Amino acid sequence: MTFSYIFRRLMGTIPLLFGISLILFAIIHFAPGGPLDVYADNPSVSKEALAQITKAYGLDQPVQVQYFLWLKAILVGNWGYSIRTGQPVLSEIIPRLRPTFELGGTALLVSLVIAVPLGILGAAKRGSTLDGALTLLSFAGISTPVFWLALLLQLLFSVALGWLPSAGYQSIGNGAFLDRLAHLVMPAAVLSLATIASWSRFIRAGMADVLNQDYIRTAYAKGQGAMGVIFRHALRNAMIPAITVIAVDFGTVISGAVITETVFAWPGIGRLFMESMDGRDYPMLMGLMMMGSVGIIAANLLADLAYAALDPRIRYG
Questions:
Q1: Does residue 286 register a pLDDT over 60?
Q2: Which of 17, 57, 115, 311 is deepest in the core (most CB within 10 A)?
Q3: In this predicted model, what pLDDT tens digit does every residue of 76-111 receive, in sequence order?
Q4: Which residues make up the CATH 1.10.3720.10 domain(s) of the chain?
Q5: Dihedral pair phi/psi, residue 17, rounded to 5°
Q6: How much is the pLDDT for 210?
Q7: Cβ atoms within 10 Å of 106's Cβ, excluding its own
Q8: Spatial contact of 301 and 9, defined as CB atoms under 8 Å apart
Q9: By C-alpha distance, which of 242, 315, 286 is closest to 69?
Q10: Is the pTM above the cut of 0.90?
Q11: Do the Cβ atoms of 141 and 196 come closer than 8 Å?
């Protein structure tokens, strides 16, 4: 049953990705300006050279022709060439995947480890001073601007205290584990703050609802302790509403944390996206956004499968 469901979902993503690619392509190409503006404003670039560049990248074709040429190429694994660097898009993206996975994976793991206990604690102590304090901290975490927090941590731990490097993936000439870990601490902390605050609220809401159910009161009546009731009976059902939010955040973070990677000069997908935006690098932008779309769709599929794993009543035919 599950395999047939997964197959149907994968088949359903084909028209979805086609529609996404069409919308993204139109938005990028109809936006003001263009990828050749930097050449047009350069007096050392002749009109003949500009015409050759335009033809080489197919920018002299109508937009609809450009789209179908791009679609035909990407279906055979050719993601095109970066207008900014002239290198193949895939060769630019692949080296950036590891830093992004390291940063995003660490941030998501930290978020999960911290958010679940906070959500459980808030639900178990709902209405108390502790619950109010956790709620206040959650709202503060959600509303804190990422770039402001990143700059604040840099000023505190790099400039004032000198404990951590301010930016980068590793020190020049040093690829040791501890050195890379030191570079990872601040961006991972910044990236995980908002997800901790958001996930803990959803987990608390789900847990508070579950703890009011009859089967929970029955478990208490049978003499089970609070920890046993929470982790053996309540947590699985309480996690179901939060799974959707976690899945979306998972896909978004792994696709590239744009602001965090930019502020900390982290050489990942998010920073590459900003560089491509500045250079109006159409092929690179399309490659990155399509890859992000695939990541979010995959995360939502995993969320659906997680529902069935957490709740035996859910079956996919």
A1: yes
A2: 115
A3: 888 888 888 888 899 999 999 999 989 988 998 999
A4: 96-310
A5: -65, -35
A6: 83
A7: 18
A8: yes
A9: 286
A10: no
A11: yes
